[in-house]
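Hey, quick one: can you model this chain's 3D structure?
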Amino acid sequence: MGFWNMLRIGSSALSAQRLRLDLISNNIANIETTSTEEGGPYRRQDVRFKSQENDPNFSQLINSQIPFADSHQLGRGGVAVETIIEDDTQGPRVYDPSHPDADEDGYVEYPNVDLAVEMTNMLSATRSYEANLTVISAAKRMALKSLEIGR
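Sure thing. Here's the predicted structure for all 151 residues.
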């Protein structure tokens, strides 16, 4: 695997995991939001990734980012965001007739965000982010070592 491949794959994964962490943070921030502009409680969001080799604009993307590179020589790989999905499972219903968002029976529907799940996902995304930083650092060290050979 070439230097450019390692950097591209690592950087695409860093961007993907950063978005995943942003969504997790948003989920945690809205754990008590019982009313949204769309109506109803906040719905948990998650991200679905895809391989960049399935991206029809792969060659154009690579050639625009690295003008002197040939996308066929670079190979393929990396990760891209396919879509951000909204979890439509029912959140917990709590009896609280004094709450402004209570229904006629006195129940309030809360978001479907589980703090334990979000914290587990955050740890997973953080570890993935760190692993990809290690890949980029290794690529950088290999490139520097190969430059030292020419001295």
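One thing worth noting: Residues 66-74 have pLDDT under 50 and may be disordered.
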